[in-house]
Amino acid sequence: MGGYLRALSPRWGLLRQATPGVIAAVALALVARALAEALAHGAGGLPRFPLSPVMCAVVLGMLWRNTLGVPAWASQGLKWAMHQLLRTGIALVGLRLTLMGATAIAATALPVALTCLLFALAAATVLARLLKVPPRLGVLLAIGTAVCGATAVVAMSPVIRARHAETAFAVTCVVLFGCIAMLCYPWVAGHFFAASPRYAGIFLGTAIHDTSQVVGAALMYSQQAHQPEALAAASVAKLLRNLSIAVLIPLAAWLTQRHEARARTATAVTDEAGAPQAAGLSGHVRLVPLFVLGFLACIILRTVGDAVMPAGSTLWQRLIQSGYTASDLFLTCGMTAVGLSVSFTDMWRIGWRPLAAGFAVATLVGGCSLALTSGMLHFFG
């Protein structure tokens, strides 16, 4: 019994540290929901201006972080909400899809996702050279924009021997321009794809960097346009991009090893601190994130449940609706934590060249996605 309690002690300590920050995120999310409701109805003399609760949550979080600051006691919980809680919400989005529906969306989104991915890699490489951005930082900007934002940057960094400063710069660029896109692109989608939530979702899923930012933008659009199908379509399009990391990371490792062999460098390469850094893939890199597998599992669960449960089963519909509610709650709280993590001061410390390269690549990829998705809607929609 004593050994069991000792094993639980570290987990209990982590839970106790995370609880205040999670409560803060939930409280701010509830305030954002109330503000969105008030704006939608023009309550209390406020102007009638429909905004989604998620957009309100992100904006309130950013304003709080950059005016009042985030206390140290909340940091652990906000980090947990931004990762575990948000990713759980993303996985639960899979309950909105069956295998047949997900396959149909994937077939439509794949050409757009693949073209945007290749375009982002090429554009980032060219712009990094033109602006004289360090090569490894250029690679990180390319992979972050093309694939899955900060996750791809962190996964690629040890593979190409990137310095800590380069990794931090790339993550900052991805967060900055991804957040700008997250707040602006739902309005673009509403203008160009108001009649087609599937294509609106594909645009959002291929034009924005990070998975959390894509889901946040899609949730904003779904809430404002009352088109929940857009969230499922954006999730599928984004996860198609995420899966490409399983190819790009090993490819980058092979190219790095080949380059080092040709340059006749030492077998062990030292980093800034002088510690040896082994060639190849880092042992902690996960090629397929767990939330992607969770998303696929929820799709399978929905498909099997729809096939097995009797038509119109009240119990099954209640379970699915509970999954929808939990997903929306987790996503809103997670995106509140994302807003609370954005520091404007940190953004401007990285210099104008990486910022210019990141902005240019993000804008070009957004334009590429808009053009391709609009073209597909025109010819096939």
Q: What is the structure about, briefly put?
A:
It contains 15 helices and 2 strands. It has 381 residues and is mainly α. A two-stranded antiparallel ribbon has the order 1-2.
List the defining traits of the structure above.
381 residues, mainly alpha, 15 helices
Task: Explain what the structure shows.
The protein has 381 residues and is an all-alpha fold. The protein has one domain. Strands 1-2 form a two-stranded antiparallel ribbon. Helix 1 crosses helix 3 and helix 4 packs parallel to helix 8. The protein is globular, with a radius of gyration of 21 Å.
Number of helices: 15
Query: Which class of secondary structure composition applies to the elements?
Result: mainly alpha
Integer average pLDDT: 80
Unreliable runs: 265-285
Q: Which sheet architecture does the biggest sheet show?
A: 2 strands, antiparallel
Helix content: over 70%
Task: Please give the order of strands in the largest beta sheet.
Answer: 1-2
Span of the ends, CA to CA: 63 Å
Count of separate structural domains: 1
Beta content: under 5%
- Give the H and E element order: HHHHHHHHHHHEEHHHH
| DSSP strand count | 2
Topology:
Elements: H1 2-41, H2 53-67, H3 72-92, H4 99-130, H5 135-148, H6 150-156, H7 164-192, H8 197-207, H9 211-225, H10 229-243, H11 245-262, E1 269-270, E2 276-277, H12 290-308, H13 314-340, H14 344-347, H15 352-380
Antiparallel strand pairs: 1-2
Helix pairs in contact: 1-2, 1-3, 1-13, 2-13, 3-12, 3-13, 4-5, 4-8, 4-10, 4-15, 5-6, 5-7, 5-15, 7-8, 7-9, 7-15, 8-9, 8-10, 8-15, 9-10, 9-13
